[in-house]
Input
Amino acid sequence: MCKKIHRGGNAEQYHADKKYKEAVAVAVEACAEDVKGQTCYICTQALHWKTKEGLVRMCACRGTAGFAHVTCLAEQAKILVAEAEENNLGYKVSFERWGRWSGCSLCEQNYHGVVAGALGWACWKTYAGRPDRNWVRGTAMNVLGSGLSSARHDEDALTVREALLSMMRRFGASEEDVLVVQGNLACSYNRLGRREEALRIERDVYSGWLKLNGEENGMTLAAANNYADSLLRLQRFADALWLWRKTIPVARRVLGEGNETTLTMRCNYAQALLNQSSTLADLREAVTTLEDARRIARRVLGGAHPRTVEIERSLQTAVDASTLKTQMVAREAVMAAAIADMRVYKAEIAANEAQIAANEAAIRALEMSPPGDA
Output
């Protein structure tokens, strides 16, 4: 064991290598049914020539597109990032190339689930040997945290994100980088049920991005969605709805209808409409919103994508709630009409009784009056 650790460089590197292999095995197993008869679009083989690993996908590609080995995806990302670093290609190019550690180059959507988790470990094992002060190490930790979160390893994601935030504060990272990590940390808190802590951070992160970039910015809009989602989780429906009504039109204009942040905002907004005090109009708006979001999500992300699945599930809930509310309103209308008819009937009875009483009184009066002349 000590020799293996020594060959790996150190305990941290050995741990990263081990977790990577485990994550790849899990990802390959999860994709096994989907990849039958396919080959890697990078190396064109079904099994990787060296690792003998199988294929994965879990992006938004459909048909025969997008199948690959995690090892091939990682090697591609590693080469692209190295070129940007060695040739000083600038922040924009470097940022785009770092995106290959988490996103598919074909459909241009992020990987999700256990494939994102495997790529997170691939990224971390590649750069774990960098010094703490090196920005590449921090970026790799961020990719790892996001991958772990996508794979639903929430405790591990929290540990990574807390360590990253501590490191960034220790070495004086930029405000933008700190806001990114704080936002991710709040997502981990929410996943683990630490709602109030998440809300406080999300509020500060949204305020921070708003001051730095204004409201017409992707980071600001993502932070607004996360903040509103935290409000929703605490059942502060009115506050959440207000914020989404303010920011969703901006997201649709700035990011586009097919952007995943826009779709997420609209789905969350519709979910917020499904609360105890919802009117029939609220429920119908939720159904309309989700029907439109589902159409777009199917086109952009595909039917199997987690975001599309979530929208489908929310739509079914909204339809059921709307149907139930419609039936309740109809029953209430029938009952109200019946009560109104009953009141009319009672009024008619009372009027008849009054007329009868008047007639009886008149008869008694006639009977009591003195007889007239014969």
Residues 1-6 have pLDDT under 50 and may be disordered.
